[in-house]
Design goal:
231 residues; mainly alpha; Four Helix Bundle (Hemerythrin (Met), subunit A); 8 helices; 68% helix; globular
Length: 231
């Protein structure tokens, strides 16, 4: 599982979209349009979890040279109540997208597949962190759960910290607009399957969601490049 985790850590940005698209096309059956609102809510909850993590104690994501890497052992902020809060947020976002897709079979299969992949990635990271930080990481693992947050430790873990909204926007805007784009793509695909002409989409709220999302993402990117948006 550690080897599998290292593989997916390295190629997750390329493989996750492929796995999801194949799931929607091949596995998806029995579309439930009523799941859209629930899916959006779950995905937004995942985004809020990520925002809480990044706004309090940011860590370098993506490793180094596409391999697991950490400069320091971060145990403050949301990392003080859960060892993998960003992955918790990711799982919620993926679960939300699976709900938006509206297929019970896809929801079941997708939850198992992505849950297994993230567990493997976590095992790979834990192996690396144990080798690098030794007893300090062992003590951290004993005090803080891997998946389920221990909210009784939230006050002590975040005491004296200030929430950095600018950092959240600058560091995670691409995640938000990324999954929002997936929501739009899923709905467009369902419209296609239902035989609705794409011209109808230009007169629907979906068109304005795409336009507004793209403009906001571009604005944030420009502000970052010009160092107006500080992190």
């Amino acid at each position: 599982m550690v080897s599998i985790g290292n593989f997916f850590f390295r190629y997750r940005n390329q493989l996750f979209p492929v796995i999801f698209v194949l799931g929607v096309i091949v596995v998806s059956t029995g579309y439930h349009a009523s799941w859209l609102g629930l899916g959006l809510g779950v995905a937004m909850l995942g985004q809020l979890v990520r925002a809480a993590v990044i706004g309090l104690a940011y860590i370098k994501r993506g490793g180094m040279n596409k391999k697991v890497y950490a400069e320091n052992l971060v145990t403050s902020g949301i990392f003080g109540v859960c060892r993998n809060p960003l992955y918790v947020g990711n799982i919620l976002i993926i679960l939300g997208l699976l709900l938006v897709a509206g297929s019970p079979l896809l929801l079941l299969v997708g939850s198992i597949v992505f849950g297994f992949i993230y567990q493997c990635i976590i095992y790979a990271e834990e192996t690396y962190l144990l080798e690098k930080f030794g007893s300090a990481y062992q003590d951290y693992c004993q005090d803080v759960p891997r998946w389920i947050p221990n909210f009784s430790q939230l006050h002590s873990a975040t005491e004296g910290m200030q929430f950095n909204l600018s950092r959240v926007i600058a560091k995670d805007y691409s995640t938000f607009f990324g999954w929002l784009g997936w929501v739009v793509a899923i709905i467009l695909y369902q419209h296609y399957l239902d035989g609705k002409p794409l011209s109808d989409t230009a007169n629907s709220p979906l068109f304005y969601i795409i336009l507004a999302g793209g403009m906001l993402a571009l604005l944030v990117r420009v502000l970052k490049k010009k160092k107006i948006l500080k992190v």
